[in-house]
Amino acid sequence: MQKPQPLNQTREQITHLDNELLSLLAERRRLSLEVARSKEVDVRPIRDTQREKELLTRLVTAGREKGLDAHYVISLYQSIIEDSVLNQQAYLHGRANPETQKQQYCIAYLGARGSYSYLAASRYCQRRQVEMLDLGCQSFDEIVQAVESGHADYGFLPIENTSSGSINEVYDVLQHTSLSIVGETTIEVSHCLLGKPGSKLSDIKTVYAHPQPISQCSRYLSQHKDLRLEYCSSSAEAMEKVNQSIDNSAAAIGSTEGGALYQLESIESGLANQKINQSRFIVVARKAVAVPEQLPAKTTLIMATGQKAGALVEALLVLKAHQLNMSKLESRPIPGTPWEEMFYLDIDANISSEAMQQGLKQLERITRFIKVLGCYPCETVKPTQLSNSQLLIEPSTSKAEVISTVSLDPSPYRFSKTYKAQASEIHCGPFTIGAGHIGAIAKITLSKSLLLESSQAALSAFERRVKQLKEAGFQAVILDGCHSLASAEAIIPKLRQTLHQYDLLCVIAIEQATDMPLATGHADMLFLTGKQMFNQALLTQAGTLPIPLFLERNDMASYEEFMAATEAILSQGNQQLILCDSGIRTYNNANLPTLDLASLIQIKAHSHLPIVINPCYAISEDALPLQTQGIKQLKADGLVLNCPLEEDKANDSLALMTEVVRELYR
Questions:
Q1: I need a labelling partner for 74 at 20 to 30 A (CA). Which of 107, 309, 403, 474 fits?
Q2: pLDDT for 626-655, tens place per residue?
Q3: Phi and psi of 295, rounded to 5°?
Q4: If 0-12 CB within 10 Å is exposed, 13-18 middle and 19+ buried, where does residue 380 land?
Q5: Measured between alpha carbons, how far is 583 from 601 in angstroms, rounded to an integer?
Q6: DSSP state of 544
Q7: Torsions phi, psi of 44, nearest 5?
């Protein structure tokens, strides 16, 4: 065996390669701006998806020849493409608004250097290659006043977080300002427990933090009840207090990047309740900006509807009529008018577009108040469709075969209204869904305690939970994780018996092909998870069964691929199919799905099949009731809601789930 070269020599070679990679990435970024300059002249769209498909196909093939995994290559180039797109957008947006082109911006933000608002503002300026003069503020009102008075060029306001939801105070501020929203940016929020160098967790007695991080890290803090919490106006203030403390008994919740500015070190990391924790910021300025037509745009507006039944529905139907996708809907009380609300909408459209202009005119006629808060480039970069197949480990029969099966058939697709004009109703025992019948389905992930057949306590806890779900108004329960049960053949019949005792259907999730025999023997209905949407053999098998099915959309699948999988099932004879959309992934949220309301509208317009939505992966719990209104108004046939089985979590979510189900049936 040949003796390896010295470790230091190997590390020096790796360092040399890393430096070369950085130089190449910088050169690639420079060339991408040359592409933007060309598109500025030719007025071509910022994205060239066909070019991206060809690029990724070539790179994946070349990577495999060099022993590189396709997933690794795709993930790497997704980040590179995202950076390229956002840089091109920033360049073209700046060129369309020459009055904004300065050597430096004065930015008003919450807190001081090191706060998350400061980090978001810094990255925003870095992408635009301008120097940032920072102006720390103590409140959102102070940020707005700084911009309104001219002391700052832009203000950064955190608008929502994937863990704690919308930031209501910011929505309230937006009601009363003349400023316009001119941009947005999203950053990863990695909460750490920060202390003085050498501090240990056992040393900490007091934790300083802003209310938002405290909310986002509530699970961690509940496990350390001995820690005393002190609220601060910003994360920067919290870190400053620790920096000024006389001993090691104080800590702050913040980022490692911000902590370094205050000579603090991370004691523990990953404090957030959710693994993926992101904050979205809006950028406000005194003057609105123009968004070139080749850039993806977002328009934010506020409106107050009339005080009559169906007023909000009427307004949302205007958006549907003009094919305008609403990506966010929030409501806030109107000060001085009890029980009346102002609605905030994010619409994926350029305000200068014909559809948006016509939609606004129609909304003006049916609302009591409407105001556009701003139109700005959308920084959500959706992945090219090729990544859907490359990121998955597929069976030998690929999704390409599924799609080709559909496209080669000249007759109308079986899922389409051309094939069947009347909306389908799916019946299973007491459960009916579709054609005006609404369904509420709970999804339970089976706990590890059920691994033991003799765990009577666990079965009793399951029964208590089932009783609560029935009382809340659910009609069926999806059992997820059956494949992990060591004694599934013995346990599943008991669970099904319990569900039937409370007139709830037993739906078993199919997470792998080996789940099918057990599921077909004990389930009232099957739930094909998104992981199996591209499994042609499994789709064919499911299509031959006489059992009603749910088909969940894969979170990387396009609308066309979802419909292709649907056709694959229907073509085998089983017409008892319900579609389920749990959201899709984007570049900005690679691990966190986003609700695809545009596809919901498209499916309802073109397919006779019922479709249910599972919003739990894409939005925070506190946003569920309002989002349910929007989902219902877009004519979805029901909801799937993730319901924890553990009693400590179940009790916390029960009231919310009950409220959501009641809103669905209302």
A1: 403
A2: 888 889 889 999 999 998 877 666 666 788
A3: -95, 145
A4: middle
A5: 14
A6: T
A7: -100, 155
Across 26-51, b (16+ Cβ under 10 Å) vs e yields eeeeeebbebbeebbeeeeebbeeee
Q: With contact defined as beta carbons under 8 Å apart, do 464 and 429 qualify?
A: no
Token digits of residue 136: 């720390």
Is the pLDDT at 450 greater than 60? The verdict is no
CA–CA dist 347, 8 (Å, integer): 55
Alpha carbons 219 and 235: distance in angstroms, whole number: 19
Beta bridge partners of 443: 478, 642
CA distances from 135 to 64, 106, 347, 541, 650 (A): 50, 7, 31, 62, 44
623: Cβ contacts below 8 Å, ≥ 6 apart: 165, 166, 330
Q: How far is CA 45 from CA 35, 83, 319, 478, in A?
A: 11, 16, 24, 43
Taking each helix axis from N to C end, the angle separating 399-407 and 536-543, rounded to the nearest 10 degrees, works out to 50
Side-chain half-sphere exposure of 21, counting CA atoms within 13 A: 8
Residues 6+ apart with CB under 8 A from 259: 114, 192, 194, 239, 252, 265, 266
| Residue 274, SS3 per DSSP | coil
Q: Rounded CA gap, 15 and 404, in Å?
A: 47
Tokens 């005194």, located at residue: 286
Q: Is residue 181 classed as helix, strand or coil in its secondary structure?
A: strand
Q: pLDDT per residue over 222-281, tens digit each? A: 888 889 999 988 888 899 999 999 889 999 998 888 898 899 999 988 888 776 678 899
At 229, which helix (H) or strand (E)? strand 228-231
Q: Whole-angstrom Cα distance, residue 517 to residue 81? A: 43
Query: Could you say which DSSP state residue 315 is in?
Result: H
Cβ atoms < 10 Å from Cβ of 452: 14
Q: In whole angstroms, what is the distance from residue 73 CA to residue 654 CA?
A: 43
Nearest of 155, 160, 153, 132 to residue 142 by alpha carbon: 155
The residue to which tokens 């959102």 are assigned: 140
